[in-house]
Amino acid sequence: MTTATPLWEFVDISKAYPGVLANDKVRIKLLPGSIHGLLGENGCGKSTMIKTLSGVQQPDSGQILHNGQPVTISDPQVARDHGIATVFQEFSIVPTLSVGENIFLGNMPRSRFGVIDWAKVHSEAARVLAEMDVDVSPDAITGTLSVGEQQLVEIAKAVAMDARMIILDEPTAALGEDEIERLHQLLRNMRGRGTSILYVSHRLDEVERIVDEVTILRGGKVVRASGETEINVSEIVSAMVGEDIGEHYPKEQNATAEVVMEAHGLATASGVTDASFALHRGEVLGLGGVLGSGRTEIARALFGTDELSAGQLILNGKPVRFRREMDAIRAGLALVPENRKYDGLFFNFRASGNITAASLGGLSRLGVLNLKAEEQATHDLIRDLEISTQAEEKTVNFLSGGNQQKIVIARWLFSDSDILILDEPTQGIDIGAKIAVYKLINKLTRAGKSIILISSDHDELLAMSDRIAIVQHGAITRTVEASDLTHDDLVRASADTTETNLEEVFA
Amino acid sequence: MKRIFDTQLIGPFAAMVIVALIVALTTERFLNPGNLSNLSLQVSIVALIAIGSTMVIFTAGIDLSSGSMVALLTMILAQMLKFMGIPLMLALPMILIVGGLLGLFIGLITAYGRIPSFITTLAALIAFRGLALTFNNGSPIFSLDPALEPIFYGKLAGIPLPFFYLVFFYGLAAFVMNFTKLGREIYAVGGNPAAAVLTGINVRKVQTTTFVIAGFMTAVGAILMSARLNSGSPNYGQTLELQAIAAAVVGGASLAGGRGNILATLMGAMTIVIVQNGLNLNAAPSSVQNIVLGLIILLAVGIDMWRAEISALMGRIFGRSSSGSAQKVKKGV
Ligand SMILES: Nc1ncnc2c1ncn2[C@@H]1O[C@H](COP(=O)(O)OP(=O)(O)OP(=O)(O)O)[C@@H](O)[C@H]1O
Ligand SMILES: [Mg+2]
After folding, report:
1. CB-defined site of ligand 1, < 6 Å
2. What separation in angstroms does the CA of A207 have from each of A21, A32, A237, A344?
3. Contact A393, A350 (CB under 8 A)
4. Pocket probe mutation, ligand 1, options A13, A14, A24, A47, max atoms within 8 Å of Cβ
5. Beta-carbon neighbour count of residue A248 at 10 Å?
6. How confident is the model over A276-310, as pLDDT tens digits?
7. Is B257 helix (H, G, I), strand (E, B) or coil?
8. What distance in Å separates the CA atoms of residue A429 and residue B198, rounded to the nearest whole number?
9. B250 with B19: CB under 8 angstroms?
């Protein structure tokens, strides 16, 4: 293996953004038929490297060799011509177009007369989706799909190109265990066909399962090069962070007997069929289930986004009815949404504006904002959550994905809500930041706040929840103590009835 | 202070200064004290109206109604003063209230009726002009009140009063945008309406409020217009809405919402008026003036869109900033 000529070789690639040297003489060799992990903390320069490799931007210096020959990847089309397909961290799908149109965007199959061959678009898209074992219609409008399904469409785009090299920037951030397993199988098949794969992920367990070689970046520099590192989670972590990390899941038991919220038979038009549970003060209640099982929809129902068609919500012993999000927020609820890009961040604000957005009332007197207090709170949260200090100066669109996620969470830490719904809160953030989020969960529950946690990372869900409610087809089928459940139980429990017909769910 | 006078002001300010220099060098009479005080008179109406237009633009909306609303309000004011015998000191606040109410009406339909502001204000643009024609059989009303003119032509310490109105209202607007909850919410709604809803910001109320402000500022502009000509006319204010929007755009406000600085709008308005003034002094026909105005808008938006490319070009010409600055940012806090 080591003697094979690399398909691609990137030599001393450097790239600076105003104020940051995001890549500093990075070298990577990609062998054919190999899966290469590119790892590192948030903001270490992984996405920057990928943008350079796929022609989105030009390196300041360095050389790119394709089969030993120097090449310039001047734009994404050139990358495509060289057989490079990229799945970017931030989606590049068009939400208003169909799945088939998105898959072939930019190179639609055409008939003899130059007209788009729709039959072929449909059949080819269906073929790719079937190859990936994805159950989505090529005619579905992409924007109506769940985040996980959109992510799969994004991957299907790269698969459809039949590329010699595939770059995946955190492809599994929004996927559940099942989908991850399917994606891995697909990648193994491609590897068998001689494709080079460059793989970025913050889920180290999957890295261990699938990656052949790793390159680890820290602060834009390669700290461990290909072949140098054993693929072993704790070793990778210490190389990434530069120090040893102790316990991954520092769970505290803070649940009390007092019930703060009760749901009885909630149902909505968007797919919640029967959700009942009780949430205790200081408790973390996990929602477990597969992608599309209705966990996000339950969150929307609780938060007043979707109107209840049946059922009753009781808050501190009093029945409540939220007609819109504002009602829920006033009653002390908070939602950290799954899709930070569309629902979470204000890209025109720096960290401060984003962090205080949900607390402007408390931060102002007679409508005038206390900017000093805002600045101080932002500063403290940036320190506590270990967010890049650039966030104080720059608008959040310049931050790496993980830092953006931390800022959305920081917003609700700053607000004084009593019940926080966290929908995939650690999606796409590095191990250090994940532990920071877990510690925050502890801090919140210790202060008597309650948390509803939605996570596709089963280990995380099991470790951080006090109890877990199993969600299937929009219903909570049972609620169990997290400590009575193993990883396998959870996988089985949530997949149990996937055979029941789907029509029910969408009825 | 750092907050108000941020880097977003540099571009529009530079544009204004460059334009002023060019006009000053090519036109003798430009720097005459008489012409300069004339400038502040000329800019005042459009610049005051542009405060509201800009706030609407910050929320990612657009206000096309202000020109027609000026005509309507001057006719209502004229009606009150000339035919209804309402004293000036009562008529003026009433006009301000009517302006605010018209804005409220547009805002409610836009925000709660979920009709795009482009449509609601386009409808208002047409309808208000029609409404203005229903007064006095559609004829202008002249010689309203001798006490009206000084509002526009009066001076304090030798400085025209409209200068003080500009300072007052732009000071207030800058305060609102940078130091108040409302200002922050306006930027938030324009930046990401979906996120604003999820953070508990009352998006519709914020949108409506910007239209109320726009209506109020249009009323201020209408009063100055009436005072300037001591009359009301259904023909006043033609294309004023476009000039106000142009001022915002030349000042760098993004039509996509969420970005821009309210003080830059004043500079945008100044830039436009200086160009018009220069062309006037050189006896350019109005056809040329319109063409030039169109080009300025294009150039301003172009510079904004190509900012990254331009700064890259500058970097190449003047040498790259060293990567050592990376360390500085990290240590800065
Ligand atoms: N367009 C940009 N302008 C300025 N700075 C940027 C830009 N894009 C990224 N950066 C900065 O460059 C550095 C590297 O960012 P990058 O997105 O490559 O990180 P990453 O390793 O992909 O992190 P994550 O795991 O969070 O996705 C960060 O400090 C980031 O703030
Ligand atoms: Mg990234």
Report:
1. A 17-18, 20, 22, 40, 42-48, 89, 388, 390, 398-402, 430
2. 26, 18, 12, 28
3. yes
4. A47
5. 16
6. 999 999 999 999 887 778 898 999 999 999 999 99
7. coil
8. 22
9. no
How many of the other CB atoms lie within 10 Å of CB of A420? 25
- The enclosing H or E element of B108 equals helix B88-112
**Nearest Cα to B320, choosing from A399, A11, A16, A51?**
A16
Among A182, A172, A175, residue whose Cα is nearest residue A134: A182
pTM, rounded to two decimals: 0.81
Q: Within 13 Å and on the Cβ side, how many CA atoms surround A311?
A: 25
Q: What are phi and psi of A66, to 5 degrees?
A: -115, 115
CA separation for the pair A421, A419 (Å, rounded): 7
Length of chain A: 507
User: What would the DSSP string read from start to end of A112-148?
Assistant: TTS-B-HHHHHHHHHHHHHHTT----TTSBGGGS-HH
Q: Residue A18 — pLDDT band, cuts 50, 70, 90?
A: confident
**Integer Cα distance of A14 and A21 in angstroms:** 8
* Tokens describing residue B291: 């063409």
**A174 vs A157, residue with greater confidence:** A157
**Tens-place pLDDT, residues B5-35:** 666 788 888 888 998 999 989 888 888 888 8
Least Cα separation, residue B45 to chain A (angstroms)? 28
Is A392 an 8 Å CB contact of chain B? yes
Task: Provide the 3-class DSSP secondary structure of residue A471.
Answer: strand
Confidence of residue A436 (pLDDT cuts 50, 70, 90): confident
What pLDDT, in 10s, does the model give residues A406-416? 898 889 888 88
Q: What is the pLDDT of residue B53?
A: 97
Q: Are B158 and A324 in contact (CB under 8 A)?
A: no
Label residue B186 by pLDDT band (50, 70, 90): very high
The predicted complex's ipTM stands at 0.83
What is the C-alpha to C-alpha distance for residues A42 and A22, in angstroms, rounded to an integer? 11
* DSSP structural state of residue A5: P
**Residue B85: exposure state from Cβ atoms within 10 A (0-12, 13-18, ≥19):** exposed
Burial of A117 (0-12, 13-18, 19+ CB in 10 A): middle
A141 touches chain B (CB under 8 A): no
Angle, helices B240-250 vs B262-281, to 10°: value is 120
Average pLDDT over residues A58-80: 90
